[in-house]
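User: I'm writing a tutorial on reading structure tokens. Could you give me a worked example: one chain, its sequence, then its tokens, then a sentence or two explaining what the tokens reveal?
Assistant: Sure. Here is the example chain.
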Amino acid sequence: MKAIEIRNKYLNFFKNHGHAVIPSAPLIPENDPSVLFTTAGMQPLVPYLLGEKHPEGTRLTDYQKCVRTNDIDEVGDNRHLTYFEMLGNWSLGDYFKEESIAMSFEFLKKQLDEKDKQISELHKLIENSQILLKEEQKKSEQQLYLAEHFEEVDNKLQDLKEKMEQKRNEKIKFFKIFSK
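And here are its predicted structure tokens:
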């Protein structure tokens, strides 16, 4: 499958999932004096990720042209490129990790060639991410339960302390009466 086919399938997939397709920003950032080039897919969206409203809504998808310079000495093998495009699906407060992973996994399973070894490896990575996410959620639920349970135990301990104080006071009263 050619890169343009993957890009088009990706953009159409997310468009069908309610995302607005936005154009790639320029390679030379217009309003970011901190860098010479756009170096990451999220870079043009930083103001929106920080809370500004995007004119296209809260669900976006794009391909972003990027120039990488931080590993320029490594350029030349299949993992280090100077110019490339990043595909992105963005939620500006609309959905979070679990839904993002699920949609990306659905895209990989239903839109791309399952026979491609790299895609299969990516499937495994996403499945592992989903498992880790569920474990993280389970831990959060357990922590919440423990926090609620701790409050319950703390309340019971407080009640017990009050009852013990009452018993102590009753014993003191009793001894005062008989010691007269």
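What the tokens reveal: The two ends are 100 Å apart (CA to CA). The longest strand covers residues 59-67.
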